[in-house]
Structures are given as structure tokens and as C-alpha cells.
Amino acid sequence: MTMKQYNLSEDDLRVKIFKALADNVRLKIIRLLYRANTELSCGEIGDLLIISKSAASYHFKTLREAGLTTTRKVGQNKFVKLNHETFDTFLPGFLNSLDK
Predict the structure, then answer these.
(1) Could you give the number of structural domains in the chain?
(2) What CATH number is attached to the domain comprising 51?
(3) Any idea which UniProt keywords this protein has (predicted)?
(4) Which of 83, 35, 92 is nearest to 60 (CA)?
(5) Within a domain: 2
(6) What percent of the chain is predicted at pLDDT more than 90?
């Protein structure tokens, strides 16, 4: 996702990013995806974090709209992965800090 897709200024996108990261569950989702180093299904993430399908869906949408993740649908399954471009541009070094 780029800023142009949502017609956001860089500062508007920064606000969306920080709001998305200001939640423990969403940080756990980011950490899971970072450590997995691949895409994971929404169901896998929900099961690992023990959150309801509706709660997981809300968190995935928030992360996707902030440009932090991308989602791919295959049949009935959705797969989520980190959008490294956003992290590299707006939060360089952030993902590496998740290992600490």
C-alpha cells in the first residue's frame, strides 16, 4: 500500500501507523509475522493469540489500512504478511526491536 492509494499525507499515514501499533494484540500480530518470516493465515494467527474471529478481523483490517500488512485471499482463506516497505520507510529498525 502506498500513501496515494488512500490519498493520505505522510503525516496522516504516520498517525494511522502509530494508532495501529498502539494495541498489544496488534503488536503481537506484527511480532508473530516478523518471527515467522512468511505469511500466515488469519486463522493461524487467531488460534495462536486465542482471539475471536471478529476481533482478529478488526485487528487485521486496522493493520492493513495503516499499510503495515497486506492480505491475500485464496478461496475461503486469507493470508497476512508484513509490508516491509512501510516499516523501512516510516519505522526503520522497528521490526528488529521486536526480538528484544
Answers:
(1) 1
(2) 1.10.10.10
(3) DNA-binding, Transcription, Transcription regulation
(4) 83
(5) no
(6) 84
Question: Residue 69: beta bridge partners?
Answer: 82
Cell numbers for 26: 496488534
List pLDDT tens digits, range 47-92: 999 999 899 999 999 999 999 999 999 999 999 999 999 999 999 9
Residue ranges making up the domain that contains 76: 13-95
Establish if 4 belongs to a structural domain. Answer: no
Answer whether residue 100 is part of any domain: no
Using DSSP's 3-state secondary structure scheme, residue 74 falls into strand
pLDDT at residue 42 tops 70: yes
pLDDT of residue 29 exceeding 50, the answer is yes
Helices (H), the chain: 3-6, 10-21, 24-36, 42-49, 53-65, 84-90, 94-97
Q: CA torsion, points 65, 90, 20, 36, in degrees to nearest 10?
A: 90
Torsion angle in degrees (nearest 10) through CA of 62, 83, 51, 72: 90
Which backbone phi and psi does 38 adopt, to 5 degrees?
A: -160, 175
